[in-house]
Amino acid sequence: MPKGVLTITSRNYSSWSLRGWLICKGAGIDFEVKSLGSDNPDARAELLHLSPSFLTPKLEYDGVEVWDVLAIAEFLNEIKPKAKLLPADRATRAHCRAVCGEMHQGFINLRSALPMNIKGHYPGFKVWQGAQTDIDRVLSIWRGCFTAYKGPFLFGESASLADAMFAPVCSRFKTYDVKLDAQCAAYRDMILERKSMQEWIAGAMEEPDELEELDVEF
After folding, report:
1. Which of 12, 19, 81, 139 is most buried, judged by most C-beta within 10 A?
2. What are phi and psi of 59, to 5 degrees?
3. Which of 42, 38, 47, 39 minimizes the C-alpha distance to 14?
4. Exposed, middle or buried, 70 (CB in 10 Å: 0-12/13-18/19+)?
5. From residue 181, how far is each of 135, 139, 208 by CA, in Å?
6. Predicted model pTM
7. What is the DSSP string of 97-146?
8. pLDDT by residue (tens digit) across 118-150?
9. Nearest to 118 by CA among 21, 2, 4
10. What is the pLDDT of residue 218?
């Protein structure tokens, strides 16, 4: 029997559930997934941004209950330090926490204009200026990390919390056909092609629930 349970909402629409999943996968813990249907009030509140705080994803592990993706990551980094969710070097770790915190707190225009939708694909999607400003900042963060730590991941040779935090952005960039330079496009593709990400995408494609409120219409 798995030692942990990760409660999520939608694989197709929930960027936070994806982040929690990738963090748990990256830590290498033994866990099972419990999914809340879109008819669950807590699930709808999260997916439709109707609440200032969410209780999903939530990890129950070895008698501990923790929610919020950054809290889950800090907990798992304590019990699984060899997984290197956070860099070992103090200055690098601080930088990683800073960009993860920025992703956690900001980019509201990007989230609103380009909602998570793994099944969707909108070639030629028009990105308005507010969202473009957020996109430009994301790419600036990526390029700064590539320059400082030489890749292929944001903080060097192994995936970290930062890569989990920005993975849903990679998915959004593909869904909405966002044009990227060669270096950033290569990073996006590498993240989307990782085994854990492909497993999540496969689950999203099989998900029966649909929320019309989150589907882009033309």
Report:
1. 12
2. -110, 130
3. 47
4. middle
5. 12, 9, 35
6. 0.91
7. HHHHHHHHH--HHHHHHS---TT---TT----HHHHHHHHHHHHHHHHHH
8. 999 999 999 999 999 999 999 999 999 999 999
9. 21
10. 33
